Amino acid sequence: MSYATVYEGWKSNPEAFWMDAARGIDWDRFPSKALNDADAPFYTWFDDGLVNTCFNAVDRHVIAGNGDQVAIIHDSPITDSITKITYAELQARVALLAGALRARGVTKGDRVIIYMPMVPQALEAMLACSRIGAVHSVVFGGFAAHELAVRIDDCKPKAIIAASCGLEPNRVVEYKPLLDGAIDIASHKPDFCVILQRKQHPAPMVEGRDLDWDAFQDGVEPAECVPVEGTHPVYILYTSGTTGAPKGVIRHTGGHLVALNWTMKNIYNVDPGDVFWAASDVGWVVGHSYICYAPLIHGNTTIVFEGKPVGTPDPGTFWRVISQHNVRAFFTAPTAIRAVKREDPKGEFTKGYDLSCLRTLYLAGERADSDTIHWAQDILNVPVIDHWWQTETGYSIAANPMGIEPLPVKLGSPSVAMPGYDVQILDEGGHPMPTGELGAIAIKLPLPPGTLPNLWNAQERFVSSYLATFPGYYETGDAGMIDEDGYLYIMARTDDVINVAGHRLSTGAMEEVLSSHPDVAECAVIGVTDQLKGQLPVGFVCLTKGVTRSNAEITAECVKLVREKIGPVAAFKLAVVVDRLPKTRSGKILRAIMVKIADGSEYKMPATIEDISSLDDIREALRTIDYAK
Ligand code: COA
Ligand code: AMP
Predict the structure, then answer these.
(1) Where residue 532 sits, what CATH number does that domain have?
(2) pLDDT reading at 97 higher than 90
(3) Which string of DSSP letters, residue by residue, matches 402-422?
(4) Mutual orientation of helices 614-623 and 591-599 as an angle, nearest 10°?
(5) pLDDT (tens digit, 9 = 90+) per residue, 348-376?
(6) Which helix (H) or strand (E) holds 378?
(7) How many domains does the chain fold into?
(8) Atom of ligand 2 nearest to the CA of 285
(9) How far is the CA of 286 from the centre of ligand 2 (A)?
């Protein structure tokens, strides 16, 4: 069947399309219908189905006789170890952990925060929660105590599962002091914490609150899977928005299972038993969908990689993992490929590895530049497929459906809309733009199964962030266009979200931190173009009157403050002092123009600018920045 037939099939009868896809999942009670639009614009899917995520990701494969198949390969060049876990072993481990959580009072609907590095126990913790209907919220290890505290106060977890440390190539990241700090700051306190003690850096425990991962599970009764409603949340994942407060994206169980399962064959073209590798982190949506859930639901082997594209130990690591574990489909961010290309421009490190197992390289998370795509295609000799999605959607909005029909690749485009998504380009007034013209990218409601139905505890914000601008549509926050063949082009964000090394960050959150510095009167953070990371945050600060300390001292404190409050992942290293920020007469900071000046691109002078000479201050300040920092 062609892509056009499949897409048109969905469009003409979405209900039948999704009910058919639902048959790929093992339900305790098969849903009587797919969409519930009774409460539009709040749509839900598979409401009256009963199902369990962990059963579909683990138990059903054991029951089908595939218990001996490897479910998870933990490949950790950082600790120089490789561990394999079969589906049968995974079932036993997850059932025990779930039993231990249940014995401590965690039940359906309770939240559990998971703060862990790239170890298989992170996936086991996610699966154990979903086994008993608890709602997990994984927090990325690169976030600092304050960010963790914000999430604790928002989702109010009954328990927190953490590791004693994470391992970065240049240092051990002690998670435990960050966790303790976060619990101190937060108003909500968890009943207990479970700590996975890693031998690289065991942590001191807090009596009465912290429980050791192994001891906690000793002698407990394993838990069976608890069937939940299709609309029961399987997880909350916080993502950056315009303000400092992260948005808690909710994922409903039924749609998540159905949609992810569908993508594995149709987009990634893998069959059960194949090895699938997404080199991301469990703290991001890619990690949720394509390290943990989708490959396991579909019966694939997934790789949990604890390393970096370069330096662990060399830029051949990706190629070693692919050939050693027989990886069929590989997924990473363009920035990771750029990092490899920078250290090994000729692809010398591919030599000596048999990469014939690899069929396709998938890229997402940020714009894939043509240089990177060409380079990867040349050295790997496989199609390089860009695809576009967001934390909110949980899987691709636009992609090249390799398992349906490989479409011609157009460089600079993540290809075409996937079934479920009616993507349109709108002008400011919400009217469709002509083909080939730039506008806001919006998706006609309802969004398909598996996408966010709401934000945790923040329905009004859900409406104002996504539904209010274009009634009847979901506003993606991206701008772009669609060409005459229906190919999408994603050009830029329309809000203050930036993308640093494939990590989604809020400049608003960084501005809030800078503003808390006593010497800072006003500030603006923008994302400037960077060859490696795509974008880098740069902070401009105006000082409070009468401050006499040196600019260098203050900017160094600003950098330290962002690292302490948000975390190293913000990669905030560049800050400069300016006298004034360019503003409109109504006082709005002209961040978009600042970005254009920094990138050396053309811009139109807004008629409403308060003082044109303030742009000279920005140019001058930019000249003093040492980007090599
Ligand atoms: N825990 C703690 N700290 C972390 C971390 C984690 N899980 N992940 C990153 N950090 C730290 C890094 O150590 C670094 O700290 P430093 O300032 O002390 O050096 C900082 O956060 C910034 O990290 P990053 O922006 O990732 O830069 P890097 O130089 O370490 O690595 C790349 C650059 C391109 C190799 C790396 O970003 C990468 O592999 N990116 C791919 C991202 C990805 O997979 N995204 C998911 C979407 S598909
Ligand atoms: P995240 O929620 O972290 O997945 O980030 C989502 C955002 O990353 C999108 O809204 C885009 O701005 C950007 N993005 C993701 N994938 C792509 C892509 N293939 N091309 C361009 N931008 C992308």
Answers:
(1) 3.30.300.30
(2) yes
(3) TTT-PPPP-TT---EEPTT--
(4) 40
(5) 999 999 999 999 999 999 999 999 999 99
(6) helix 370-380
(7) 2
(8) 4
(9) 11
